[in-house]
Amino acid sequence: GVFLFGGTISNCVIAGNYARAGHLRTTVGGGVYMSGGVIRDSRIERNQAVGSATGWGGSSYGGGMAVAGGRVVNCLVTSNRVQRTANGGGVDWSSSYGSGGGLYMSGGSAANCTLADNVAFTNNPSGTAGAGVYQAGGAVTNTIAYFNRAFVTADDFAAAGGTVTYSCAPELTTGAGNLTGDPQFVNTGAGDFELQ
Question: Residue 86 carries which DSSP code?
Fold first, then answer.
């Protein structure tokens, strides 16, 4: 994947990356980890962040992107996943922690982005939230998070900190300019997330 702490990435496809931590370690950012710089006009898709494969612990955050700083502008973040695997390559549902299937944000900003068809795997309600976006800090504006899921349950946006304005997700029932209704993508099933 990409580790960005400065500079600009634009008009790129960041796809098919896999980040996995060892025993009791934390995995952050399957496709992108950024603490500075700018990613714009790009697609971040089919990436995975997988936590510890053995023992307890091993949280994972940001299947598509983990943003601690910098700016994400006009990007499509789709078909990413975050999970914790068990021995033998299965999934340990009993103790998995995974947040932000598409985007885990602790700082920086995201604007004019779409996050769809991302997945967070867990059965621990205190350990997973925001299969589309998990926001612990930073600023989100004019962004759509829709049709993401934790297992098969809709789970699009969870905010534990930061600000979110003029955005669209079922959970955004408050905040300036936020909407909850279906954004009316052209063809969700075919992966066309442009607006009608």
Answer: P
